[in-house]
Amino acid sequence: MKYRHDLPQRSLERTRLRKHSFDSVAGLYDRVRPGYPEELFDDLVRLSGIPKHGRILEIGPGTGQATLPLARRGFSILGLELGKSMARRCRKNLRAFPGVEIRNLAFEDWEIEPGAFDMVLAATAFHWIPARIAFPRCDRALKSGGSLALLWNFREIPDTPLHQELRDIYRRYIPDRVGQRAPEERIERQRKKIVGSGRFGPVTILRYPWQSEYDADDYIGLLRTMSDHAILAPEVRRRLFRSVRRLIARHGGRFVRPVVATLFLAPKRPAGATS
């Protein structure tokens, strides 16, 4: 039996719903969403050449998964977070760092401070902003010599019995999600977008394979924070989660989620430079 998604037909409306879905699960997001390896932040600081106590503009900090590691390294950070509850949670998590300011504001609506930042950072958030808006605004906000840093955790899909069964479950409930691109395809696609903007490059790409292990409750919690799951019809979502829970129970009660954390780092091109 196939289940209807009961989702808006217009792609723009689906994107809007997904973009705004995180705020209703801010507490859960804070608890179960993975961060990024510390090695990634060490490399980011070293390779970007950002000065000590440099200023970072962060787009969509969420509850601080990337903000906190950089605040601990002494940087001044302005975070622009769309969700009211997410922004409140992020402020709480960063309250020990007076150099961090979190505003409840969409990046698109922020009044740009031209040439004020050493780095613009987005961790699993840049894809929510149309490229025609995102790249020019980042360019304007950066100082000469500043850098754009984009982070993602790209999901690996191992060829194991558990993951094969998981794919079968998704074919039944969310068939559009089964054919997701492999990490390397997604990495190359993002690289082309950065270079194609004409405003940043060359692009340094570093990969950090790692994994998180979840019990059934925490893994279902993680799924609840994913935007494509959040906008499903409630009955479809309920049946999907019940099937996933049963699958994890049959395989020992634990689920290992391998990902490739990826850093894209690209300097701002000088005015008039060509790619």
Task: Using brief descriptors, characterize the structure shown.
Rossmann fold, 275 residues, alpha/beta, disordered N terminus
Question: How do you describe this structure in short?
Answer:
The chain has 275 residues and is an alpha/beta fold.
Structure write-up:
With 275 residues, this protein is of the alpha/beta class. The chain has 12 helices and 7 strands. Helix 7 packs antiparallel against helix 12 (234-250). The radius of gyration is 19 Å and the shape is globular.
Spans of at least 5 consecutive residues whose pLDDT stays below 50 are: 1-9
What portion of residues belong to β-strands?
Answer: 15-25%
Quaternary status: single chain
What order do the strands of the largest sheet run in, or round the barrel if closed? 3-2-1-4-5-7-6
Question: Can you identify the CATH superfamily?
Answer: Vaccinia Virus protein VP39
Number of helices: 12
**Percent in helix:** 40-55%
CATH topology: Rossmann fold
SS content category: alpha/beta
Radius of gyration: 19 Å
- The CATH architecture term is 3-Layer(aba) Sandwich
How many structural units, i.e. domains?
1
